[in-house]
Design a protein that fits this description.
Blueprint (H helix, E strand, L loop, with lengths): L1 H13 L3 H6 L5 H30 L11 E4 L2 E4 L2 E9 L2 E9 L2 H5 L2 H53 L5 H34 L12 E4 L3 E2 L7 E10 L1 E2 L2 E2 L6 E10 L2 E8 L3 H9 L14 H5 L3 H11 L12 E5 L2 E5 L4 E4 L24 E5 L5 E11 L4 E10 L4 E10 L7 E2 L3 E6 L2 E3 L1 H7 L11 E3 L6 E6 L7 E4 L5 E10 L3 E9 L7 H4 L11 E8 L4 E8 L3 E5 L11 E7 L2 E2 L2 E2 L2 E9 L9 E6 L5 E3 L3 E4 L9 E9 L6 E8 L7 E6 L9 E5 L9
Antiparallel strand pairs: 1-2, 3-4, 5-11, 6-39, 7-10, 7-40, 8-9, 10-11, 12-13, 13-14, 15-16, 16-17, 17-18, 19-20, 20-23, 21-22, 23-24, 25-26, 26-27, 27-28, 29-30, 30-33, 31-32, 33-34, 35-37, 36-37, 37-38, 38-39
């Protein structure tokens, strides 16, 4: 303690430049730990050396007390152990022997006298140790000064000049110390606020109860809804994932449709849980009863008894594949007069005026067709619209993927279908151009350890049994939309993943594939739906892949590195040369950590050519506690400019005490100016997954 105090005093008086305070900041573990080690080492060495020297000058047989243990019984006090040390000096070698004996003298010696003797002998040694600590510390610090003098002299002079304390070093140290302490407090406050932002964002993934379902006309909170904006925005996402105190992972939650119908500047809102068979069973039971994809906990042992491995080995692996719940939670679409909710395996037909499940959920050509949550709406040269669905099915037991493509016209008539097969892999989305269906083959594999050990023991979920395969590169699979031409298979030049694609087009010779790329694979999207600001946070970037159809080569360009997801383009741009897209992006960054998705951003390519690799970005920041969700672009009636229309999105408001959800409408050409209309929804809606817009007004006839 005394040695460290001497060091602090000497540092302040002799080394008191602002630069040296930076280097010797005692509040910094990196600076203080080495110095403490030096100080302690010097002190111990000096203490031992001086003690041996002092004791040796008096009597080579003198006793040096190392430790004394005492016990008290009544009025008697007895010293139990003495250690006798005998030193013999042989040149530079010191030999010491010690033995333990009971000391009769100490049995009768007064306790105060014994301690006084110890203190008298210890004072010279202790004082010598203190001075040794100070000298050793100063030597260490001065060595650092001379070692750093050449590289830091100019910086020190600049800092001294900046604060004008050339002749007042001690005061400069005080000022610099205050400045550093203030900076440290500010740094800590910034770090706390940054992590709190993630907590606020995650509040958008809180579950709701089934009794929140409602409908009614809403008031416009800010601005005005354009009167020429007629149609209905449909949003879908998991909303109920807590029952009886148990929680499922967000993506396993039951889907809830939010329907916002707009006409003549007015808006009608309706929310309804998708009445899947699983939802009905669990509502009746009041608890989870079905196996899910992303949650490791299995409800079957509690329901039927027996160990979890029995169900997972017998039913899921040997008699598989397993049948997880269909939650109807990943998208919503109104096409050819029919509304459907879509999950990973099938669509559910809904009654447009109530959002109740229509019959069994499979009542027409579209709801009888299996497809996933991603589709592309194409506007043909004659003005007609075509929708392209795809259904990726992978059988890992057979190690085979089967992909089906379907095209329907605006009346719900199937125009074409195509089915292809290849070795097992994973797809999430597709790109459709004038001539091709394009798939991005993510390099994944079955994790054998998790599949046959972790999963049967209930330690991991179904989704955890699939992992990235660093031994492979992503593969583009191009299948002709028309005819029976051979597919084109071309590897990506880089290892990456892509889940949500932006757009693509081809000119017959080259094909462009724009997407949001990830550096690693994770089926659950933890970076997006469960970020913590430490390990999990958005790390995506916008990439353009240019595929030469003749040379069978692929080039990648990084368009921007701002973390982005949930991209969209207008229906008139899908599959064609385009310039504009809209997406969610991170608004903040601290060090290497990106903030959660928050901004609504418009990305504008410098031109619509194949080779364009540069862009400008324009963003709207919704507020410190608000987070924008997937945008949907709807063109203005009669518009000729690609970006002439409106961008509609839900925004999670995580403001403490005022949590809720807002609908915002922005001008597609003036994103940074913010909403032209804002509507507060009647209840909180968890952050959703995907949605769509239809020209049809699905609300009641009159307000």
């Amino acid at each position: 303690f005394f040695g460290w105090t001497v060091f602090i005093m000497s540092r302040q008086q002799l080394l008191s430049t602002p630069h040296m305070y930076d280097c010797r900041d005692v509040s910094s573990s990196k600076g203080s730990i080495p110095m403490m080690l030096v100080a302690v080492t010097c002190g111990v060495a000096a203490f031992v050396a001086s003690s041996l020297w002092l004791s040796g000058t008096n009597d080579t047989k003198s006793s040096f007390l190392v430790a004394t243990t005492t016990t008290s019984t009544g009025v008697q006090t007895r010293s139990l152990v003495h250690r006798h040390a005998r030193q013999t000096v042989l040149g530079s070698h010191v030999e010491a022997r010690a033995e333990q004996v009971e000391s009769p003298a100490s049995t009768h010696a007064p306790r105060s006298s014994l301690r006084l003797t110890q203190i008298e002998k210890g004072i010279p040694s202790f004082v010598a140790g203190i001075y040794a600590v100070a000298i050793g510390t100063l030597a260490y610090a001065l060595t650092s000064v001379f070692r750093n003098k050449a590289s830091t002299g100019a910086e020190t002079a600049q800092m001294l000049h900046a604060i004008n304390v050339h002749d007042q070093w001690p005061m400069a140290t005080v000022a610099a110390k205050s400045e550093v302490e203030g900076a440290a407090k500010s740094e800590a406050a910034d770090a706390e606020a940054f992590l709190k932002m993630f907590s606020t964002y995650r509040s958008g993934y809180d579950s709701v109860n089934s009794d929140v379902q409602t409908e009614g006309w809403l008031e416009v909170t800010q601005g005005q809804i354009p009167k020429e904006l007629t149609g209905t925005l449909l949003r879908n996402g998991p909303a109920l994932y807590e029952r009886q105190g148990k929680r499922r992972e967000y993506l396993d939650g039951d889907g809830m449709i939010s329907q916002m119908a707009m006409k003549d500047g007015k808006i009608f809102f309706r929310s309804k849980f998708v009445g899947t068979d699983s939802f009905k069973r669990e509502e009746e039971a009041g608890k989870f009863v079905d196996l899910s994809i992303f949650t490791a906990e299995d409800p079957r042992p509690e329901l039927y008894g027996g160990p979890v491995w029995l169900y997972r080995l017998r039913d899921d692996i040997f008699n598989g594949p397993p049948s997880p719940k269909s939650n109807g939670a990943y998208n919503a679409l109104h096409w050819a007069g029919k509304t459907v909710a879509i999950d990973w395996g099938r669509p559910w037909a809904l009654k447009s005026d109530t959002l109740e499940v229509d019959g069994s959920g499979s009542v027409d050509a579209i709801s009888n067709t299996k497809f996933t949550a991603h589709f592309r709406i194409m506007e043909e040269p004659n003005g007609n619209k075509t929708i392209v669905f795809f259904n990726p099915h992978t059988d890992w037991a057979e190690y085979k993927s089967t992909i089906s493509f379907y095209e329907f016209d605006s009346k719900g008539v199937q125009l074409s279908s195509k089915q292809v097969e290849f070795e097992a892999t994973y797809f999430h989305d597709l790109i459709v151009t004038e001539n091709y269906y394009v798939l991005f083959d993510c390099p994944v594999k079955m994790d054998m350890k998790k599949t046959f050990l972790g999963y049967p023991m209930g330690q991991v979920s179904l989704s955890d049994t699939i992992s990235e395969d660093p031994a492979k590169l992503p593969l583009f699979r191009l299948y002709p939309r028309r005819g029976d031409g051979e597919p084109i298979l071309i590897n990506s030049p880089d290892f990456c993943y892509a889940f949500h694609h932006i757009n693509g087009f081809d000119d017959g010779k080259r094909l462009v594939f724009d997407t949001c790329t990830w550096d690693r694979f994770e089926l659950y999207f933890t970076d997006i739906v469960k970020p913590d600001g430490k390990v999990y946070y958005p790390k995506t970037k916008q990439s353009r892949f240019i595929i030469d159809l003749e040379k069978k080569t692929c080039e990648r360009k990084i368009i921007h590195e701002t973390p982005c997801e949930y991209p969209t383009v207008g229906p008139k741009s899908t599959g064609k040369f385009y310039k504009y897209s809209y997406m969610c992006t991170s608004a903040h960054k601290r060090g290497e950590v990106n903030g959660p998705l928050q901004n609504l951003t418009k990305v504008s390519f410098d031109d619509a050519s194949v080779d364009c690799g540069s862009c400008t970005m324009e963003s709207w920041y919704p507020g410190d506690n608000k987070f924008a969700q997937e945008p949907i672009f709807h063109p203005r009636p009669g518009a000729t400019a690609e970006d002439d229309g409106w961008v509609l999105a839900l925004v999670h408001d995580g403001t403490p005490g005022n949590k809720g959800t807002e609908l915002v409408i922005l001008d597609g050409q003036k994103i940074s100016e913010g909403p032209i209309a804002t509507v507060r929804l009647p209840h909180y809606v968890p952050i959703g997954v995907h949605g769509s817009f239809t020209d049809e007004f699905l609300g009641p006839a009159t307000a």
